């Protein structure tokens, strides 16, 4: 069964409410391919390796979290950009990308999906009075040591995380997938025992240590694999079309 590309894009927009979210890039259809869709391939980032995998999988649409045309970047289609776009266009594959809309969605969002993977009960946003907050806060059913929780993260994500460990049990957790290390101060203010994100900055260490909070950096890519899969599965069920998630590993 095939559906119109326009129908797929309209449903993704409606479901995510993408037009209501201010972002650093355009969300939605970034590159237009063939007008009919039978197979979606999803992945985290529209790298050349990801595009080539989509070509190999005979995708009509490549659905990603990290697409193109970020604010402030050079708009010239040369070098790496030219090779990526040329491959998409030569194979008539559409690129559908959602950044912040896929972080914050209450069902398929990266943060909610990561919580489900790690058995964290979502309680609410890191900053209840800030509607632009991306991160969440929640709790574990049973308190764990920071080291034991880091082992859970390792087992689930398949990647050994960076752990800054404090000698306190972990019950209340704050988290933001990807490059969310800058939210550690909001997490501390929310009274968490541990803050989890994808990356770390130099100052993150000091914020964690001096405030007695454990910290985990589990990988930008690793923490953001689940939202795009969930969105792809939703669209697949909605329109009875094929969906395949392909993980192009990234150690960052």
UniProtKB/TrEMBL annotation:
Q: Which SUPFAM superfamilies match?
A: NIF3 (NGG1p interacting factor 3)-like
What GO molecular function annotation could you give as one example from this UniProt entry?
Answer: metal ion binding
Keywords of this entry: Metal-binding
Q: Which residues cross the membrane?
A: none
Which sequence ranges form a coiled-coil region, renumbered to this chain? Answer: none
Recorded hits in InterPro entries, A to Z, give: DUF34/NIF3, DUF34/NIF3_sf
Q: Which Pfam families match?
A: DUF34_NIF3 (PF01784)
Name the positions where a divalent metal cation binds: 65-66, 103, 220, 224
Keyword S-adenosyl-L-methionine present in the record's keywords: the answer is: no
Return the GO cellular component terms, semicolon-separated: cytoplasm
User: Which Gene3D superfamilies does the entry mention?
Assistant: NIF3 (NGG1p interacting factor 3)-like
What's this protein's family per the entry? Belongs to the GTP cyclohydrolase I type 2/NIF3 family.
Q: What is the protein's name according to its record?
A: GTP cyclohydrolase 1 type 2 homolog
According to its UniProt entry, this protein's organism is: Pseudomonas fulva (strain 12-X)
| Taxonomy of the source species | Bacteria, Pseudomonadati, Pseudomonadota, Gammaproteobacteria, Pseudomonadales
């Amino acid at each position: 069964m095939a559906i119109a590309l326009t129908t797929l894009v309209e449903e993704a927009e409606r479901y995510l409410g993408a037009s209501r979210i201010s972002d650093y890039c355009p969300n939605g259809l970034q590159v237009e391919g063939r007008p009919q869709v039978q197979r979606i391939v999803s992945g985290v980032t529209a790298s050349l390796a990801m595009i080539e995998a989509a070509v190999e999988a005979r995708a009509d649409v490549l659905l990603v979290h990290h697409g193109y045309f970020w604010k402030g970047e050079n708009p010239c289609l040369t070098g790496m950009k030219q090779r990526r776009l040329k491959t998409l266009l030569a194979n008539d594959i559409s690129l559908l990308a959602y950044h912040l809309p896929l972080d914050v969605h209450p069902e398929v969002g990266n943060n909610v999906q990561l919580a489900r993977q790690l058995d964290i009960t979502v309680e609410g946003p890191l900053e209840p009075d800030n509607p632009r907050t991306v991160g969440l806060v929640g709790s574990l059913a049973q308190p764990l040591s920071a080291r034991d929780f880091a082992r859970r993260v390792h087992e689930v994500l398949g990647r050994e995380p960076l752990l800054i460990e404090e000698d306190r049990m972990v019950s209340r957790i704050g988290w933001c997938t990807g490059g969310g290390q800058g939210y550690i101060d909001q997490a501390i203010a929310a009274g968490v025992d541990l803050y989890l994100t994808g990356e770390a900055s130099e100052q993150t260490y000091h914020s964690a240590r001096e405030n007695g909070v454990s910290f985990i950096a589990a990988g930008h890519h690793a923490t953001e694999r689940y939202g795009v899969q969930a969105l792809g599965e939703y669209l697949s069920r909605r329109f009875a079309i094929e969906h395949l998630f392909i993980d192009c590993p990234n150690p960052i």
